[in-house]
Structure formats: C-alpha cells, structure tokens
Amino acid sequence: MGAHQPFTLPRTGHVLKNRSVLAAMTNKQSHEDGTLSDEEIKWLVRRAKDGFAITTTAAANVTEHGRGWHGEMGVWGDHQLPGLKKMATQLKETGTLSLVQIFHGGMRAPQSINGVQPVSASKNTENGMDGLYTRELSHEEVLKMIQSFTEAAVRCQKAGFDGVELHGAHSYLICQFLGSVTNRREDEWGGDIMGRSKFLRDMITSVREATGSDFIISVRISPIIEKAGIFLDESLQLAEILSTMDIDMLHISCWDVFQGVAGDEDGPSLTKLFAETIPKQIPVVSTGAVWTSKDAQWLMSEGADLVGVARVAIAHPDWPMHLANSDYSPDRPPFTEQHLLDVDLSPVFVEYMKRWKNFVHGGKNV
Ligand SMILES: Cc1cc2nc3c(=O)[nH]c(=O)nc-3n(C[C@H](O)[C@H](O)[C@H](O)COP(=O)(O)O)c2cc1C
C-alpha cells in the first residue's frame, strides 16, 4: 500500500484521494478579531489544491479569551462566519477533506493578550506567562467550556467544513486536563486517566450530538509531555478509551516519528505502539519530521493509516503529488524568503517562520 493511494474513512465512508494530511499550522495571518484574512485562505487552499487529502486549518480558538497569540484564527463568534465560509467553500472545490483544529489556550492564553486571568484544569503557570497563575475552572465553567467547543464545531459545520480536529496536544487546555501534573482536581474532571479525560470525552459526545453522524471528528494528542504529566502508558490507555467513541481518527503528534521512545530506544516506534493498541476501525495519523516519500512509506509500514506533515508542506505545497515516486526527496531548509513568498506565504507568515530554527535564510539559526 502506498502513501499515494486512496483511503476510506471507516466510520463515514469518506474516500480520501491519498494518505496525506496537512497538519495544523499556526501562521499568524488572521485579523485581531479572529477573522480570516485572504492571505490565510490563499495559503491553505494552495496546499489543498496541490493534493493534500486532508487539510487542517491553524489552531482556532473557541472562546474570545482563550487566545494563545496574536494573528490567531477564531471560531468563537458569528462575525467569523463569512471568512470561514469563504475558506471552506474554496477548500471543498479542491476535493480535500477540510478540518478546523479547535482549541483553547488555557494556561497558555496570556493575560497580556486576553486581558483576563487565564484558566486551566488546576492552578498552573508556565514560561511566558509573566509569573502569573491560572484560575481553576469551576464545574459550571468546565461545562460551559465544553459548550463553547461544541458551538465552535457547529459554526465550522455551518461554514461548510467537513469536520474538526480537537486539539488535545501540545499543552493547551484539553492537554492540561489530560496531564496529571497540570490537572490535580479531586472532582469528576480529575483523578486517573478516565477522570482526566472526561473533559475530552464529554466534548466528543457533545460535538457528535450537535453535528450529527456525517461530521468528522479527529482527536490530536501528544503521547508524551513529562512536564504536563502526560506519560506513554496513560496515553495508550487514553487511545483505547477514545477508540470506543464515535471519532474518525486519532492523530498523534510525535515531532519526530523516527525518534525512539526514551528509555526504550530500540523498542517499537510511537506510531507502532498506537497502531497496535487501537482497533483498525480508528485510523491513526502520525506526524513529525517526515520529509521524503520513503519517510512516508516507512511511517505507513509502522502502522500509520495517514501521514501528517507540516514543515515540508510549507516549502513544497504539492508534496502529496510526488508520493508515487519512491525517490522523491524535496529540498530541505533553509529556504529563501522569495521561495516562501512564491508558495503563497504572506510576509507576516514568512516573518513568523524566521522564528523557527534554520527554516528561513537569515532567520533564527541557533
Ligand atoms: C509554523 C508551524 C505552526 C504550527 N502550528 C500548530 C498548530 O496550530 N497546531 C498544532 O497542533 N500543531 C502545530 N504545529 C505542529 C505541526 O502540526 C507538526 O506536528 C510539527 O511541525 C511536526 O511536523 P513536521 O516535522 O512535518 O513539521 C505547527 C508547526 C509549525 C511548523
């Protein structure tokens, strides 16, 4: 089976043209009120047009005060609908399956941006938060937060997107509930992995009820973040729990799919562990450091049903078109600013990419 070949999503029967997934990428191109800019639409539609089977938006926040950074996409208000409709319509025309990645920053939504004290599963803080602490969400606020995620998903559906990806990775709010370090609650939203995943599980149930059976729900998780109290054995348990629910795929964010698991470097890859843990009817998307078509093929041989990429698709929007060629090995960073402008990044996005180590000539290189 090759990465260039089609795949049918088991639950809905949606046929994907190949195995490629454009993973969510923040690009700073949205307006301050969370509405989409034409530049952001252009950047994403280009990648969909150029062959991605699934195209995911940047992380988009579900409440006005959950913003993690400036230039972030929002799905919290109806004023954002016209832009969302425009993006969804153009994505649909390409034949891609479109997902909005929905999230809330939680302890990573700075007061300096939102004007309010950040919230989390428990009282937390972290770098970049000016030494300020979050407030623990009350039971009623947790329910309200699930409602905000649900309303955001309904808004995405109304706009014409095929589904959402619930962003449970990278230490944002869902992840803060999942982690034993960031979630020290003693009520029903805390405790063991069953309790700490209740926020996510109730969210899945609520989004499914509100959007109906055709709507795609992907869940993205980080297998290991020790600082947050996310450990592999519990993440595998979580995957098992989630696989009994009405979700369409589980997306593991590995950052480097080739890296061995710490402490068991010669053991199976993260991808293999997850693929072997959950039943085949829940496809596994795995993402991190895939660059060549051989990389993609290797990832599938480890059990990934779908191959996620981010950075390679910034510079090479038509990456999926080359997957049938087993020798495809696209140029690697650093890239020139002109090249990035030519592949439909706006100057704002190019500036942002200068902050990623060694990605742009003349950008950060340490
Ligand atoms: C510019 C940029 C922005 C990103 N923004 C997000 C995001 O909004 N949500 C998310 O889940 N991951 C985000 N990521 C992580 C990617 O989705 C991906 O998991 C990671 O870059 C590893 O894949 P890669 O090696 O193919 O780039 C971002 C990555 C990059 C390079």
Describe the structure in your own words.
The structure is a single chain. The model has no long low-confidence stretch (mean pLDDT 97). The chain has 13 helices and 13 strands. It has one domain: Alpha-Beta Barrel (TIM Barrel), CATH 3.20.20.70. Helix 1 packs parallel to helix 2, helix 2 crosses helix 4 and helix 4 runs parallel beside helix 7. Strands 3-4-6-9-10-11-12-13 form an eight-stranded parallel β-barrel, surrounded by seven helices. A two-stranded antiparallel ribbon has the order 1-2. With 366 residues, it is of the alpha/beta class. The protein binds flavin mononucleotide. The site of flavin mononucleotide has 22 residues, from strand 4 and helix 11.
Write a short abstract of this structure.
With 366 residues, this protein is of the alpha/beta class.
Layout of SSEs?
Blueprint: E1 7-8, E2 15-16, E3 20-22, H1 38-49, E4 54-61, E5 73-74, H2 81-94, E6 97-103, H3 111-114, E7 119-120, E8 135-136, H4 139-159, E9 163-168, H5 173-178, H6 193-196, H7 198-211, E10 216-221, H8 232-242, E11 249-253, H9 270-277, E12 284-287, H10 293-301, E13 306-309, H11 311-315, H12 337-342, H13 347-353
Parallel strand pairs: 3-4, 3-13, 4-5, 4-6, 6-9, 7-8, 9-10, 10-11, 11-12, 12-13
Antiparallel strand pairs: 1-2
Helix pairs in contact: 1-2, 2-4, 4-7
Flavin mononucleotide (FMN) binds at residues 23-26, 58-59, 101, 167, 169-170, 220, 253, 255, 287-290, 309-312, 356.
